[in-house]
Amino acid sequence: SDLTIFRCLLPARGNQFWDGAMTHNPHILQYNGKYYLYYTANHGSGYWDHTPDSIMPKMTHPEWWVNRNNQRIGVAVAENPYGPWKRFDKPLIDITPGRRTSGVPTVFRRPDGKFSLAYKFVTEKEGFKGGPVKHYISLSDSPLGPFKDHDKPFITSPKSDFPIDDHVEWFQDGKYYCIAKDHGDMITEHGIALLLFESQNGLDWKLSENSLVHKFSITFKNGEYREFDRLEMPKVYLENGKVVALFLAAKPKGAEDSFSIVLPVLYR
Question: In 10 A of CB 64, how many CB atoms?
Fold first, then answer.
């Protein structure tokens, strides 16, 4: 109730722009006196501009896939979080041969000074849906790129063409860490859950010994127990080089609206 919406930082600006229809999946980085807002965006044919607000886009509609297949990754820059934000007329991560979309960027600065960007893309295949979804780590000397992919995808599973989603990476106590959503028994037997991975170089990853971060349920301090259809899009807040809070997008079972949850991270 005490939350005030300031304004939309990256509003729709027309389907003539690569990011003109909508922006989502934000990830912000502060570096050298500036703020870098990474995001997923798309444009469409304009079909949804002429439909009633009561008609929501659904995956069963061909036009939904037009927007999805125009998804790309962008970055905007500002000297203050309130703006103004400078947008660019070209994506930061565009498609290349064999890739249909790019999206869901997470970025942090490594101890060696390079910037690590993790993201996903849909491989090319006949039909609207496309092929398997791959996740890659990409490095750059600048927060504005260009970024170069590592030579192989990270966190894969023989059980699925799309085993994980919605991840975040960071460096702490001499290791790289990643929290990612397992789509359901693809990596472990915890079902749909948030899992912890680790790496010595930030490129080659393995499941952590204590891998379960959170299942899709929460018991609150007042004793209330809630199950969730969605508990995802993790973001971390660090103080003195350690994660002290985990931010999640949450949608309770059967609910129409979603919200954000902040979970304290405790160390034993």
Answer: 17
Region 56-71 average pLDDT: 90
pLDDT tens for residues 28-47? 999 999 999 999 999 999 88
Q: Which residue has the tokens 């295949």?
A: 125
pTM reported for the whole predicted model: 0.93
Tokens of 81: 């979080």
With 0-12 / 13-18 / 19 or more C-beta atoms within 10 angstroms meaning exposed / middle / buried, residue 36 is buried
Which strands form 164-172's sheet, in the order they lie side by side? Answer: 164-172, 175-182, 193-199, 206-215
pLDDT value of residue 57 = 84
Domain boundaries, the chain: 1-123, 154-268
Helix, strand counts (H, E) of the chain: 1, 15
CATH 2.115.10.20 is right for the domain spanning 1-123: yes
Which residue matches tokens 């919406």?
5
Where residue 54 falls among pLDDT bands split at 50, 70, 90? confident
CA Rg, the chain, in Å?
Answer: 19
Average pLDDT, the chain: 93
